[in-house]
Design a protein that fits this description.
The radius of gyration is 17 Å and the shape is globular. With 263 residues, the chain is mainly β. The chain has one domain: Lipoprotein localisation LolA/LolB/LppX (outer membrane lipoprotein receptor (LolB), chain A), CATH 2.50.20. A hairpin with a 2-residue loop joins strand 8 and strand 9.
């Protein structure tokens, strides 16, 4: 099972990395989503990032570190750790997907002094006050039915339009969304944007992938992710100092070390 790490995945939501060598051909909607975002070609991933939360004339800024790794036994782990400002410093979010598809997410808040496991009905909640949600960060493909509903032109590129609908009404209530619509480049499988619809099937917000650059040979990544809501709010996530295959210790991405600073 592949997992979308955007804010992917990104960090679906915070770790969005695209392998340009895949050809879509006769792939299904699910298969295209699987191939559009994968870290299989690198052992691990590390980046610094800034998060701007814009509310009218007011902008709140956050600094964070993101790490992702696939262990030798097939676990996929992703950690987001906030480093500034002081009111969020030390906050950590850890997502683990096991080889059998089981997953768990843990949140550490310094004010609480301990980590706690996220429950399903929190998945649609705001991630640290931003317009990203916890579901954006840890969306699992198995939780949705995926279908190619159109092929059209977007930003002067031909794209597949893939609709992802929650497998149950209960799940839809948990994530506070009736569906997600993803626009993926038909030639190189870049994700251009994702539309998220509320429970009344109205467009709620749109996630844009921008500034796509090659970070290693054949591996591309959007260095800027923008969320715009229908209410006029927005959030900007920008990556810097992106590194791959740096030798991350899997123990650093564990519940036991979630409260400890990244070395």
């Amino acid at each position: 099972m592949k997992k979308i790490l955007i804010l992917s995945t990104v960090f679906a939501l915070l770790f969005p990395v695209f392998n340009q060598t895949i050809i879509a051909g006769d792939l299904t909607g699910r298969e295209i989503l699987e191939e559009s975002q994968t870290l299989d070609v690198v052992d691990d991933f590390e980046a610094e990032a800034s998060l701007q939360i814009i509310r009218g004339d007011r902008t709140r800024e956050r600094e964070l570190i993101m790490l992702s790794i696939k262990t030798e036994d097939g676990e996929e782990r992703a950690l987001t750790r906030f480093t500034a400002p002081s009111d969020v410093e030390g906050t950590g979010f850890l997502n683990i997907t096991y080889p059998d598809g089981e997953e768990e997410s843990w949140l550490y808040l310094p004010a609480m002094g301990s980590e706690r496991r996220m429950v399903s009905d929190e998945r649609g909640g705001s991630f640290m006050g931003s317009d990203f949600t916890y579901e954006d960060i840890s969306m699992t493909l198995d939780d949705y039915y995926h279908e190619i509903i159109d092929q059209q032109e977007l930003n002067e590129r031909e794209v597949y339009v893939i609709e992802s609908v929650p497998v149950s009404d209960e799940l839809a209530d948990d994530i506070e969304a009736s569906k997600r619509v993803t626009y993926i480049d038909s030639e190189n499988l870049y994700i251009h944007q994702i539309e998220v619809f509320d429970l009344n099937k109205n467009l709620d917000r749109t996630i844009y992938a921008e500034n796509i650059e090659e970070i290693v040979e054949g591996l591309f990544m959007p260095l800027r992710m923008v969320v715009e809501t229908e209410d006029g709010d927005s959030t900007i996530l920008e990556y810097r100092n992106v590194q791959t295959d740096v030798g991350i210790d899997p123990a650093d991405l564990s519940r036991r070390n979630l409260s400890r600073p990244i070395q």
